[in-house]
UniProtKB/TrEMBL annotation:
Protein name per UniProt: CbbBc protein
Taxonomic lineage: Bacteria, Pseudomonadati, Pseudomonadota, Gammaproteobacteria, Lysobacterales
Pfam families (UniProt xref): Molybdopterin, Molydop_binding
Domain Molybdopterin oxidoreductase span(s) in chain numbering: 112-483
Family in the record: Belongs to the prokaryotic molybdopterin-containing oxidoreductase family.
Native source organism of the sequence: Dyella japonica A8
Gene3D superfamilies: 2.40.40.20, 3.40.50.740, Dimethylsulfoxide Reductase, domain 2 (3.40.228.10)
GO biological process: cellular respiration
Domain Molybdopterin dinucleotide-binding, chain residue ranges per copy: 644-752
GO molecular function: 4 iron, 4 sulfur cluster binding; formate dehydrogenase (NAD+) activity; molybdenum ion binding; molybdopterin cofactor binding
Keywords for this protein: 4Fe-4S, Iron, Iron-sulfur, Metal-binding, Molybdenum, Oxidoreductase
Length: 759
């Protein structure tokens, strides 16, 4: 698309996948590891006796197939299994104030943390500290705070079920339900939006359903980058001729054309397979309107077909749902003019989707952050459920809802108790198992936690992984907030910016990664994780740990807990000698994990119950509910023509706040991240040329000027009125309280902005 010669911006004509992906994998491996180690490591990824890929939460074919090649999985694995190290001498030589000026890429590229460290404010450096001293001091400080609700227990979704379970038991015995979680920034709209609709806040499809579906509608996700193993599945579906309809404001190459690196023919012939049969460039934030348009068309088709119509599944609607009449009334009252204006799509486009949908006897709707990270995230998800319910697309082969989860165990962490709003069953289960009554008062999610920290109500932050202050909106506010804390504890594999936001007492505790051997008193241990499709399976690291001083996440949590809670009812040290004991406790608290230890020993593991697959609805009414969204988009509508909608996305070379490199190959960006993707007509209207230095400003009153400077405009195939830039650079444009009021998910994907040429 580049018409002008701009450094690092060129057209990428090739399909996604293919030889480009193989080359990029080889480079990732070379930069981080010896080739020999790397081969062994990569071959063990996602195999029954190996470890679960830390890259994404897409499931594996029975965990047994041949090596599933995936470029970004290889990056995630080599980034963790790197030969590079960050020993105490590194910290002695580099003051925190100096490290602050390093880029996020440079910080993590230093390698793996090797020793527990504590911040020395006088010298502005981290110094090594023996594990037991670190635990003792953390315990003393926590006990000294007085109020348990002034402590925030953050979880990032890499933590295993075993680590996350112990962690929430620790926090609850300490006395709080403050569980900010990366899921709050991610699929909370799913966790909160789906239970009232279908009775469970998770996806309902299994991998086998993709073999039987007759249509896929893919909304707001970019699998070529973020769920690359899903590309193999989409490739198969496309090759057997089932239509795939994509809703995405940006043209994403992998959703257009993909060459499967597992296919010798495509690799040899430089061939590729078209993925999307229809690609609809919906406006940012226009999905609810588009979904209502499809439903409106569908209802009209049904009425036109007269009695006995099979456009809707009337028997299913009658037997299994509530609220159909109200939905029909609401959808009917939306006008095509409003739907077209809000979605940026035409009535004809949406009618064509309705026709394809009416023809399909088994439809899967897949969706990602493009749907959830909006002020209407919960409503977006509920409209997806409505559309599926209209044709009974639950509880039959090849049909269902498929949220694409983020971190490889983000779903499992929630299942084993990381939630700020515990149910009575959870509290009872913990009391029965451990003999203490946990607090019932609701705690903080991520936004509420950061607000409490900013206001001084919370005094300590424990982070089980992640890079919270960088991942959240409004870095200026978050950085200042966490620096004012009394205590921070970071359990991490690699150095990141959150670790440099030191406060009075700051500890950096290095842990084992997924790829590494976890040796406890009872022998080598496996952990378990739950993928996007509720399959729970074991993951066993095989590599020699990056340092002898590393401890496992469960061991670190147990160490902190026993030092903090001298009268604890939980046998912390016993539990970690053999993780079967932790799993037995999980089973005791959560009955769905019956025979946990036996069932994870079966290759591939087991599936947790998903009642909608049996057409069982665990809602208050016992039926699936059509839930209304009275409107088409968020309430904050900007009619000013100069206001555009900004979305923040991941590049191909990053894992959330981890920056592996500076290319975004499929979007034609090489060696830079300072870009804003814009529609060429919007550029023309604003008198901006491609390559011009621009500034992006948040276009609504937040009491504070928010701007992204030092970026350039890049012409891209993106919907009119929509612009995109990278996360986390764009986070400065998002106010902390700019979120979905129902789920608390920050609206990272629809920020009203103005774009001006830089002075
Ligand atoms: N390699 C790699 N893998 C990852 C991650 C990573 O950073 N790197 N992150 C992991 C995590 S935690 C997560 S949550 C997932 C994220 O996976 P995705 O959900 O794919 O994440 P994003 O990059 O945020 O991309 C969102 C997609 O939505 C589109 N989009 C933006 N706004 C809208 C909108 O208003 N409507 C619609 N329909 N589409 C829109 C964007 O163009 C983009 O294609 O991936 C996980 N896997
Ligand atoms: N603007 C904008 N902001 C966003 C998003 C967006 O799309 N746009 N997406 C949001 C989403 S979906 C998410 S999930 C959050 C991500 O938020 P987080 O989960 O907090 O962030 P990550 O970047 O995944 O965390 C990376 C760090 O995790 C640590 N780590 C890696 N592996 C391990 C391990 O095995 N154990 C431990 N203990 N630590 C480990 C490393 O130190 C690494 O630096 O960001 C959110 N922020
Ligand atoms: Mo995520």
């Amino acid at each position: 698309m580049a018409e002008k010669d701009i450094p690092g911006i060129r057209t990428y004509d090739a399909p996604a996948g293919g030889w480009g992906a193989l080359r990029a994998t080889a480079r990732a491996v070379r930069e981080q590891m010896d080739a020999g180690d790397a081969t062994v490591t990569l071959l063990r990824t996602n195999k029954p006796e190996g470890f679960d890929c830390p890259g994404c939460a897409w499931p594996d074919k029975k965990h047994t197939s041949t090596f599933q090649f995936c470029e970004n999985g290889a990056k995630a694995v080599t980034w963790e299994a790197t030969n590079k190290r960050v020993p105490p001498t590194f910290f002695a030589a580099n003051k925190i104030g100096e490290l602050w000026h390093w880029s996020d890429y440079e910080l993590e590229d230093e390698g793996r943390l090797t020793h527990p460290m504590v911040y020395n404010a006088d010298k502005d450096i981290y110094e090594s500290i023996p594990w037991d001293d670190a635990f003792a001091r953390i315990g003393e400080i926590l006990r000294g705070l007085g109020d348990p609700d002034s402590v925030e227990f953050y979880t990032s979704g890499r933590a295993s079920n075993e680590a996350a379970f112990l962690y929430q038991i620790f926090a609850r015995e300490f006395g709080t339900n403050n569980f900010p979680d990366c899921s709050n920034m991610c699929h909370e709209a799913t966790s909160v939006g789906l239970p009232p609709a279908i009775g469970i806040g998770k996806g309902t499809v299994s991998l086998e359903d993709f073999d039987h579906c007759e249509l896929i509608i893919a909304m707001g996700h970019n699998p070529g980058t973020n769920h690359p193993r899903m590309m193999g599945t989409l490739h198969e579906v496309a090759r057997r001729g089932a239509p795939i309809i994509v809703f995405n404001p940006l043209k994403e190459r992998a959703l257009e054309r993909f060459a499967d690196p597992q296919s010798p023919v495509e690799m040899a012939t430089l061939g590729s397979t078209p993925i999307a049969t229809t690609y609809l460039q919906v406006k940012i934030g226009g999905d609810a309107a588009a979904l209502k348009g499809i439903m409106k068309a569908l209802l009209e088709m049904d009425a036109a077909a007269g009695p006995g119509s099979t456009v809707l599944d009337h028997a299913f609607i009658r037997e299994h749902t509530n609220g159909f009449a109200a939905l029909a009334q609401d959808v009917g009252s939306a006008t095509w003019a409003d739907i077209e204006r809000t979605s940026g799509l035409t009535e004809a486009d949406l009618r064509a989707v309705a026709e394809a949908y009416a023809k399909s006897n088994a439809t899967i709707i897949t969706y990602g952050m493009g749907m959830t990270q909006h002020r209407t995230g919960t409503q977006n998800v509920q409209q997806v459920a409505n559309l599926l319910l209209l044709r009974g697309n639950f509880g039959k082969p090849g049909a269902g809802i498929c949220p694409l989860r983020g971190h490889s165990n983000v779903q499992g962490d929630r299942t084993v108790g990381i939630t700020e709003k515990p149910t009575a069953a959870l509290l009872d289960g913990i009391e029965k198992t451990f003999g203490f009554r946990p607090p019932a008062t609701h705690g903080h999610d991520a936004v509420a936690a950061m607000q409490a920290i900013a206001e001084g109500r919370s005094r300590a932050l424990i982070s089980l992984g992640g890079n919270l202050a960088v991942a959240m909106p409004d870095p200026e506010a978050c950085f200042a907030a966490v620096r004012g804390l009394e205590l921070q504890v970071h359990i991490a594999t690699k150095l990141n910016r959150s670790h440099l936001l030191t406060s009075k007492h700051t500890f950096l505790l290095p842990c084992l990664g997924r790829t590494e051997r976890d040796m406890q008193a009872g022998g080598p241990q496996a952990v378990t994780v739950e993928d996007s499709m509720s399959m729970v399976h074991a993951s066993r690291g095989k590599l020699t740990p990056a340092s002898e001083a590393l401890r496992s996440e469960p061991a670190i949590v147990a160490g902190m807990a026993s030092a903090t809670l001298p009268d604890s009812k939980v046998p912390w040290m016993e539990l970690i000698t053999d993780y079967d004991r932790i799993r037995a406790a999980i089973e005791s608290v959560f009955p769905d994990f019956r025979d946990y230890n036996e069932r994870i020993r079966v290759p591939g593991g087991f599936r947790l119950p998903i009642p909608p697959t049996q057409r069982v609805w665990k809602t208050a009414s016992g039926k699936a509910e059509f839930l209304l969204f009275r409107g088409l988009e968020e309430d904050l509508v900007h009619t000013d023509p100069g206001v555009l909608k900004l979305t923040t996305v991941r590049s191909h070379d990053q894992y959330n706040t981890t920056i592996y490199g500076f290319d975004d190959r499929y979007r034609g960006v090489f060696g830079r991240r300072d870009v804003v993707f814009m529609n060429k007509d919007d550029l023309a209207e604003l008198g901006i040329e491609e390559g011009d230095a621009i500034r992006v400003e948040t276009a609504f009153g937040t009491g504070k000027e928010r701007r992204l400077d030092n970026v350039i405009a890049v012409a891209y195939a993106i919907a009119r009125g929509s612009v995109a830039t990278y996360y986390p650079e764009g986070n400065c444009l998002v106010p902390l309280d700019y979120h979905d009021k129902v789920s608390g998910t920050p609206s990272y994907k629809s920020v009203p902005v103005r774009v001006v040429r830089a002075a």
